[in-house]
Amino acid sequence: MHKVIVIGTGGIGKRHLRGLLETGRARLTLVEPDDGRRSEAETRFRPAASHAALADAHLGSHDLAIICTPAHLHVELMAECAAAGVSFLVEKPLAVSMDGVDDVIDRVRRAGVLARVGYIRRIAPEIQALRRQVIAGKIGDLKLVYANASQEFPKYRPDYRTTYYSRPDMGGGAILDAASHTFDLLIWMMGRPVTVGAMYDRLALEGSETEDTCLVTIRFESGAMANVTINQFQKPNVSSMEFIGTLGNLVVDHSVVRFADDDSGDSKEVRDFMEGLVPMAAHQARFTLQANAMLDALEGKPDFLATLDEGRTNLSVALAAKRSWQERRFVDLID
Ligand SMILES: NC(=O)c1ccc[n+]([C@@H]2O[C@H](COP(=O)([O-])OP(=O)(O)OC[C@H]3O[C@@H](n4cnc5c(N)ncnc54)[C@H](O)[C@@H]3O)[C@@H](O)[C@H]2O)c1
Description:
Elements: E1 2-7, H1 11-23, E2 26-31, H2 35-45, E3 49-51, E4 64-67, H3 74-84, E5 87-90, H4 101-111, E6 115-117, H5 125-135, E7 142-150, H6 153-156, H7 174-190, E8 193-201, E9 213-220, E10 225-231, E11 238-245, E12 249-253, E13 256-260, E14 269-272, H8 279-298, E15 306-307, H9 308-327, E16 331-332
Parallel strand pairs: 1-2, 1-4, 2-3, 4-5, 5-6, 7-10
Antiparallel strand pairs: 6-15, 7-11, 8-9, 8-16, 9-10, 11-12, 12-13, 13-14
This protein binds nicotinamide-adenine-dinucleotide.
Residues 7-13, 31-34, 37, 54, 68-71, 73, 91-92, 118, 120, 163-164, 171, 177 line the site of nicotinamide-adenine-dinucleotide (NAD).
């Protein structure tokens, strides 16, 4: 059994706790300052130990930390893990600004601990299948991606006004909170981004200081380009990415992957990777897969989870998107 400490038991902390329990490989400690949430998590997940503050939790006695606080706290918590010699999985986004990011990555490297970022969409079987096909050359050279991830966010997070989501300084909004998932898949499949242009605004959601809509355009070192469209108020739930290559297109629409290489209007191959599954149960199951992948990595096995360097690149795209619209110009990413 691995000794795992989950820091923050809000929306995503609970998913991690359940995922970890379902691996049967983790002995849990939790840290949550909010009394109501802490006692709810204690009742549901029966941890071996539970604390209101990390300072009381003997961080260094754990094998792995899962950092599930809002993103403005990630840098200091990653630094605490590095200082205590504890490997960690930090939730996305890596941070809310570049302040302290390079320093903490350096500390983690020097501490020699394993560190990954919780970009959960990499776990999805449909995404892995699509990536394998792109790498195998099924659509020729990948040149363009059109991505749209849009839905009525308040339906899924009715408390959004009182969470980090409504605060730019805590990592909320369409760019840092939502688009960052898509940026991760693009970075994973298309390589190094070099130029970013964007528009964004709060078009509809009330009670939030963050943007609920963004249109982001990214150019990659390979010359390929991507367009990321997000709104968080529309009624239909859309999640689609079209990968356009010189020999054909692969589309992932929620869990369905389609391949076409002619103009007949028909797909040559269609596969639903969630056929027969309940969507929310399948989503939760991915946290078990992610927990197993992280524990495997801890045991020295190869993994495909996002690295801190990829999390940093992702953050630089998000921050460049914000700057692009604020300064009304394209922003080049320079390391
Ligand atoms: N991977 C995903 O699909 C996904 C989904 C939602 C959120 N997230 C990310 O997870 C993080 C948390 O999001 P959430 O929706 O769970 O937020 P949340 O507001 O629901 O929960 C955050 C929790 O952290 C606790 N907390 C605050 N400071 C703390 C501290 N110093 N020590 C321990 N706990 C502390 C809060 O009391 C709260 O319970 C964010 O970075 C967010 O972007 C990821």
